[in-house]
Structures are given as C-alpha cells and as structure tokens.
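Re: your question from the hallway

Yes, I did run it. Sequences:
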Amino acid sequence: MATATLPHTHPLPERNPGTPFDPGALEGALVNKSAIERRAATLPTRRTVKKEWQAAWLLHAIQTIDLTTLSGDDTPGAVQRLCAKARQPVRPELLRDLGIPHLRLTTGAVCVYHEMVPVAVEALEGSGIPVAAVSTGFPAGLTPHRLKLQEIEASVAAGAREIDIVISRRHVLTGNWKALYQEVRDFREACGPAHMKSILAVGELGTLKNVYKASMVCMQAGSDFIKTSTGKEAVNATLQNSLVMVRAIRAFYEQTGYKVGFKPAGGIRTSKQALDWLILMKEELGHEWMQPHLFRIGASALLNDIERQLEHFAYGRYASMQYQPLG
Amino acid sequence: MTLTELMETLPYGPAPEAAQPALDWIKTHKGRFQLFIGGRWRSPASQEWFTTLNPANNQPLAEVAQANATDVDEAVKAARKAFASWRQTKGHVRARYLYALARQLQKHARLFAVLETLDNGKPIRETRDIDIPLVARHFYYHAGWAQLMESELAGYGPVGVVGQIIPWNFPLLMLAWKIAPALAMGNTVVLKPAEFTPLTALLFAEICQQIGLPLGVVNIVTGDGTTGAALVEHPGVDKIAFTGSTEVGRLIRKATAGSGKKLSLELGGKSPFVVFEDADLDSAVEGVVDAIWFNQGQVCCAGSRLLVQEGIAEKMYAKLRARMEKLRVGDPLDKAVDIGAIVAPVQLQKIQRLVQKGVEEGARLWQPSWAVPAEGCFYPPTLFTEVAPSSTIAQEEIFGPVLAALTFRTPEEAVRLANNTRYGLAASIWSEDINLALDVATQIKAGTIWINSTNLFDAASGFGGYRESGFGREGGKEGLWEYLKKTARAPKAKAVAGKTRAAQPVADVPPIDRTAKLFIGGKQVRPDSGYSKVVYDPEGHPIGEVGLGNRKDIRNAVEAARGAFEGWRKTTGHNKAQILYFLAENLSERAEEFARRIAQQTRQDGTAEVEAALEALFTAAAWADKYEGMVHNTPIRNVTLAVPEPIGVMGLLCPDDQPLLALARLAATALAMGNTLVVVPSPLAPLTATDFYQVLETSDIPAGIFNIVTGERDELAQTLAEHDDVDALWYAGPQAGWALVEKASAGNMKRTWTLPASGPLPDLDEILRQATQFKNIWVPYGA
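Structure:
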C-alpha cells in the first residue's frame, strides 16, 4: 500500500472499503450548533501543552502537515523549493540544539495541482514523502464527471499517491445523498491504490447537520480521509465544523470498524492552531487519530510558525522569520 | 522523557499557573486577615483566628479572624451608619461605584482567579474563564440598574442593612450575586463569606477601599456558623440573603420568623438532566461534563440526576464512560485539569459515604481506570447506573462529582421523574425537537431550565428555586425586588365611609335558618368536627354560625386544590379571565345582599365595598392574560425566557377588614395567576365568604381551585403552614401569627407573605409578584 512508507511507526489499520449507501446512518445527524460551539470554544481552554511537551507536539505536528501550494502562479521551481522544505522542515542546527540531530523528520505529504505532480514526485524521490494531488475540478468541482475521473486517473498515473477530491456541493444542498454517494464511489474506484481524501467544502454546505451528513456519505463511499475545505471558500477549517466531522468519523468507526482520517485545511497558520486541532483529535478520537495516517493538516504558512516556536523553546528568545528557510 | 519519547506518546504534561502572586498578596497581610468593618481592618473582639487551607495539598494559606456577636454588632452599626447617606446617594453615583468595582475586578482578574483556586480547589480554567468574568459582569449589569433605579423602579426604595451569608462553592461569584444588587438598590451590607473560602472576599474588601467606596457600605465579617447565626439574629438587620444548604436555610427561616426581616434563600438541589432519544448525544455528553463535573460537582444546580430515554440509555452510558476516561483530575492550578480538589476533607468523606450507600443500595458504580492524586482532597468522576428513584443517591444532594442515572419511557414519565424531588432549582433538557423541549420545560418545577445546554449563568437572568430550593431570585430585574421595598403606595380610590346599614328583617315571619358550610372541591361540605361557631356583629349580637373547620378539613381542601392545580395552571389566561369576569357578573347580581352582609359584620359601607370588589375582580380578570414575562438580554445567541408561573397550592388567611374586597383582590388575583386556593375567612367576618361560595358555584369556577374553610384562624394557619403540599401561604393577622406561620413554613420552605390583620390591602403589583415565581428558560439556537 502506498502509505506504507509514511514516516510513522504505527501498524496501519485496514483501509476503509466503504459500505453500501445507508441513508439510515444520516438520521443520526442530530447536531446542536450552540452545543458544538461551546465544546469547540472550550476545547482549547481545557487543554494546553507547554515547554518540552509542546515542542514534542509541534515536532509531531510537522509530520502531519500536507505542505501545500495551490496557486495559479505555481511553477516547477516553486514546487521544487516546497519539496525541499518538506524533506527538511526544520534547520539541522535547530534539531541539533533541540537534542534530536538524528530525528528523521519530514512533512506528511506535499500537496499540489495535477500539473505539478511529476515535478513533486521527482523532487521527493527517495524521501518516502507522498505527493497528493487535488483533483476533480478543484476547487469548485463543477467540471464534467467523466473528466473528473480522468483527472484522478491521470494524477495517479503521474505518481500521486493521495488524491484530494472535491464533492459536488449541490448534491448536499439539495439533499441528494444518493447522488453524492455515487459520485464519491466513482472517485474512489478511479483512485485505485491511491488514498482518497474527500473535501466537503464545509463553508458551502449551509449547516452543521449537512456537514455531518456529507461526512457520513463520503465515508460510506469509501473515503480514506474526509477533509474540511479547499482553502478557497470563505469559511474553511474551524474547530466547530471539525468537531462535527470527527464525531462523524467516530460514529462511522463504531458502526463499521473502519478508521477514516481527518484533514482540516484552510486558515491554519499558527502553532497554537495546530495544537488546538491535535487536542481536538486526542480528546474526541484518541492517540491513534493524531498520527499522520489518520490526521493531516493542509497548510502552507504553518510550518514556518512552528519553526519559530521550536526556536523559542530551544533558545529561550523570540525568533524572526528571516531565520526560517523558505519553502 | 526525551523529546522523541514525548513524540511517541504525546502526553499533555504539566501546565501550572503560578501561585506566587496570590501568595505574595497574602504576605502583604502578614498571613493574617482582620475583619473589614466600616471601611477599616480591625482585629476580632475574640482575638481568635482560624486557618484556611488549600484543599489541593492541605497546606495552610492564611489565618482569618473569627468574628463574634460583638464584631457583627459593630459591622451592622457601621452598615446602618453608612445606609443613611448611601440611600440618599444618587443612582448615577452608585452606578459609578459599581462600575469602578467591575473595572477593578477585571484589572485584577488573574489574582482573583488564582486566589480563588488556591482557597477553594476549583480548576484555574473555571475561575479564570467562568467565575471571575461572571463576577465582573454582575457588577457591570447592576451598575446599570443603579443608574436606572429612579426612573424604572419609582416608588421603591432600599430595604436597609442586609446580612448576607454565602457558600464556599463559588465564593466570589456568590459575593457578587449578593453585593451587586444590594448596593445598586441603595442598601448597605454585612457579608459573611464561607469559613472554607474567605480569601477572595477579603481581596474584594481591598478593592472597595481602592475605589473609595464610602466607609461601611460593604462590611466583611469572617467566621464560622456562629458568626452567621449572630448576623441572622441581629435586630438591626433588615434582610437576610442566604445561599447554602437547605438544612441551614431552614434554621434561618425559623430564626427570622416573625422578626419582620425580609428573607431570600437559595438552597440545595438535585437537578434533573433529561436526555431524549432525539438529542445530539455527543453534545449531551459534554453537557453532562458541564453539569456534574463542573466545580467537582459542588454546584447547587448541578445536573446530578441523569434521566435518559430507555432506548438510548446504553449508548449514552457508553459515550459517557468514554468521555469520563478522558477527564483529568489533579492540581487545580494546572490549566489542563478538568476536576480539581474537593473543598475540604469533611466534604470528601460525605461524598465517599454517599457513594458507598449507593453501592449498598444496589446501583451500579463506574469510575475511570485512572487514579486520582493520593495527596489532597480528590475524588474521581463517578457514574451510577441502574439507580432506583427511591434510592438515597437519587434523592439526596451529594455535592460531588457523582452522577445518578435513571431511565424513562415517555416525556410524561420524564416529567414525573424530574419532578420527583423535594428540590426545584434547575433542569437541563436535551432534544432537537423544540416542541418537546419547550413542553417539558414548562412542566418541570424549577427556577431555571436550560434547553440543550446547562449551567449557563448571567447577571441578566434570574436564578433561584422552587420548592425546598428556596425563594427569591438573583439576577435580572426579578432579582432586584429582593433588595427593594415599597416607599410610596399607589393612589387609592376614596376611602370607604363608615356608614351603617343593617339587614332589614321582615316583620313577624321568622327567617329561614341558614347553614353556612365549608366549600371544598366544588362542594358544600359539613365540617369534619361536627361543630359550629357563632358569628357576632360588632355589638356582640349573634348573626349566624359557621362550621368549625379542623386539620382534616384543611387536608381535604389542600387535596382538592392540588388535584385542580395542573388543570387550572394550563387553562389559558383568556379563559381564566372569562371565569373571573363571570364571577363579577354574578356577584353584581347579588350586590345588595352582599352589601348588607358586610355592613352587618363590619359596620362599614357594604355598597362601596361591593363596588370596589367588583372592580378588583375585573382587575384580576384583566391581569389573567396580561401578566407577562420578559426575554432577558443574556450575552449569548439565545433567548432567555423569564416566565412568571403560578406558585401552586396557596393558603390564604384573610384580613379582618373588607371581607369581600380581600377575596376579590387577594384570592382572585392569586387565581388569575393560576394558583389554586385554600381560603380561611377572617373570624370576624366569615359569612361573606360562605355567601360567596354560592356565587362561585354559579360562575363556572372549576371544582377545587377555590376552597373555603372557616374556623379558628391560627389553628388552621398552623396546619396550612406545616402542610408539605402547600406551596405558599399568605397570612393576614396579628404579628404573633406571623412568627407562627413563618416558623412552621420551614418544613417545605414554602413562600410566606405576612400582612396586618386590618388596614389597606397591598398594592396590586406586590400581589402579582407574590402570586408568581419566575422560571428562566434558556433556549440557545443556531441552524
């Protein structure tokens, strides 16, 4: 399996094969928004990590980052730089000063558009870092279904080991869950061995109940991960919508025994935010779901902030961005 | 552990908040605190001190003065002296002081939070994020009421010197709930903090000094129960406000009986947490965390009884157990701790004892796999399932992190179980069906109902109990009445002239003998005793006889009133009004007869009184569909509905004057608000009431809502006051009787209202308030 070379030490769970479409599981979509907000608001105030514990969590967080560039002005040069950063996310002398010079540390993946997949695959060769490709008419998902499947197949053929698909929001907004199931099912087949992350674009789904239902349907259709956002919507990952999604993951696991991963993306820029999401995972789903095979953060600027915090921990003084190598 | 090892397991690690600033503050008082009286620190007359401990490690924090009766007397004198000018201080100026207190509290918020955690053992997250922000909010909110008092509360003034006794579970928050409204309304206070947790009150005293609050407006006397008792008994105190156990509340009710002191009590609870099958269960689980594992479960309104619909019970329990595994118990100063220390060893022992009892009584105990710290007062979160409603842990307030779970089948059964308690402080209802949630909210007897939420507090919302959870409200406009008394009466219709018009017997034909009976459950019944007593006119001539009612008649009347209550409560305001108008209509038909009877018994102008009574009945009818609640402006996305509800079964001992007007004004208004009544007419003029039941019988008055028992006033009053199924008692009579009913009311903590035997009847706004109690229903919303 493709992810077998990911930098982690945990035995991998069986991949979610999906289930038949089960509208009954959607009836459990009883999501109370105010209560969700209260829980989301108090998660970061009930838990915190400090000092070396924080440093360990941040080093761990690096391993969960899908280091991402998804811009119209991406070039092979920019992608190569990003891949170099993914291979070496923290300066060697900082790792040395943290007392972990031999730690083999990389990001969880590099995430790019299809056209950049070959460049990234080449740049990451031998590193074990998978390339993820956003697909299926990302970000709006309004290209023809046939072309979406071809796009997935092309990315897989080009060496992408992970495919981040976007769902058709209209199926959610019109309650056409069967259509959503079939769409994602088709995507999953097209992915073949590549792992599929289903982007819900939660900011465009209207309600938290819809977020829950869409999560369920995507998991039934065989998603390996469910992901909050493309990063291009007006509202992206928040602790509220993430809480709803991880609770759906828990319910799906309880119903089927399959572990589906979670990827928040969009707007996660600071170490504090990364810690908040890790806390969310630890509290709601437990330790295993903090690992890169079940948890990724889609981000670009986050890594530099984590480096700064690590530097502060190592040297006891506040750091400047100019000391952090660019990606 | 090395970084790589930590990366493997990703534990939380310690995250302590520094204790030093608070310890340094204690040092500025050399570790020993005096009493704060008249704006100055002074040594206690006894020269005795007690130690306050940090329950997380049992280490002493400071020595605190033990105030005795002499000190309390000094404090009350200081408060009395300050009252003279404080009451005259303009509302705007008082608002500035309250605003300054709020600002100071915010500026020193972390010091207060750390000090509170040290003294009480509650987690720093709670003191930092909940207690202290609510304290500041309380002072801001009441600064506003001080500002608005002159315009919005015209005709009312302060009560005077208020003695306030607060518990250890929310030391500074309870101080704020007591002091802010008292000061806003122009009262001065003597406050006694709990013995276990006096320190933040003493820091608050310093802040009073810093802002230049006039000397003596706030006095803090520390000490044990004897200090509180001295305050309760002090004759110079005009009102006692108490928060604490029902047991102590009962003692205070007895001690103040007949003293004329105003009293508000916020007491214990065994609040239900009701989860329906259509609830968001994951959120309901978090709700339980906030309900029973907030403040170690040491919360008067803790959702300590989990009522789960049977079909989802096992699922809910499984989720709960998984959640409990993740709770963290330990050093309260650790920012990542959910449950801190129990306040004191004695409290810990009580929890252990009750848990043991639960096991013995056959309930199934579950606790997380991890152990709590061995040192300090810690107790793990605990879940009991298979709990019988009759078991001790389902009935008694444990005041610890212990949840007792029961199941129900239908909404109706959920309500029945929820109400199967002596208490009525709060309830939490979880369902995504707003129809179901609101229906249940109106039926649960409790002062605060949280829908899909729990333990939400705000200064704008009234908080307080039904039943043995006490009376009076704190917060909201409804909370202000506790600190107000009427200074100007509403203008009266012109006084009733003392004309005499006796009955005119028809010559030569003997009148047909009339038998006045009791009126119970819509029927005329003979008194159980089989005795009658003669009624005399003011000159001493016999004018008739009434039945001599006794305990059993009262029992029957209360039973009838209880049976009729739910139906009458649910009758629409419109229909209640229709019935009361019809009553007036039928009374006016017989106006002359009633006028003659009044004149015969009282020698007053009966015609004028009948007219006044007709008007009073119209007024009561008018209010039946117009006495409305409020929507409080609490600072979250929600509606907080403040709903006036009937109190329940009421006893009414009528005044001697104006027998018909008293019925029309007092009884009919109480009826209009949805109460059902047991009326004891004045012994001087009972025949008006026994004539009145004939009017009741012709006016569609539902059987049982209006019962009349004639007899000896104080004997019947005693029975009513002691009766556990009577929810409120209005007693007009001699002052000796006030003490009697107030003392006897302590049994079920019923609300009492004592009135003079004669003289003008109270104003309608007071009657309406006394006939209702506020329920605050919090309904958060969001798509």
